[in-house]
What does this fold into?
Amino acid sequence: MSGPDFANHDGKIWYNGEIVDWRDAKVHVLTHGLHYASSVFEGERMYGGNIFKLRQHTERLFYSAGELGFKIPYSIEEIDAASIKACEINGITDGYIRPIAWRGSEMMGVSAQHNTINVAIAAWEWPSYFSPEARMNGISLQIAKWKRPSPETEPVHAKAAGLYMICTLSKHTAEAAGHQDALMMDYRGQIAEATGANVFFFMSDGKLHTPTPDCFLNGITRQTVIELAKKRGIEVVERAIMPEEMANASECFLTGTAAEVTPVAKIGDYSFTPGDVSRNLMEDYDRAVGKTKADAAA
It folds into this structure.
């Protein structure tokens, strides 16, 4: 999300049930969420005035909060409505929505049972995560040194802020080396995901293969693309995939709210050619979310 300073932006933010000026949506420096990562969030997209799969995103926000041991002080319906309101007050019909919930500053230390749970929702216009040219030609990924942790070490199925530290480290290293993103393995050495997206491979057996999400997020976009592939008659295989198996893949693509469906041309020493499977699923996804041809080219 490069570009202007996100703290210095014209607009409004939904903050604990009130609409506040964008620049006034602040937290204290001793906020527990800042020091101990007791924060969960969502990333959502609005297309043509509709937030794609809003209810699923909101339900996941509440699930993530539960995994971190706190309760969001609003109903799912109220957060749905607030997400829509955040877009309306900023005049957004095509953009990105970021709901976030975190523990406040009443207690400072690992223990924080009495901290207030805060919720904010921001919305802004945001173009494609990767450039249109990169999406058509395929992006390049470096293989990250950091690995997705075991479910015994972290709440791996929550969309929790702390789980993204190794993603930032991996993406920064990859970009410094001239790549657009990084592919992460899991604690067993199996392929897991990119830094903010799931990964698919079209293999020599004519099937679409994707890692089983047993230690990382089963992305909402991932689930959508699996449904779209099956509608096309493409068999989808969810399984453990070892890095060397990438040699058997002709196509590869990423899926995510930000990435949407983005073909991959290179991962480490492995090369892929964006082909019919990737292009067809890109187009299917664009139709599913309500993108116009002009939007898709932008």
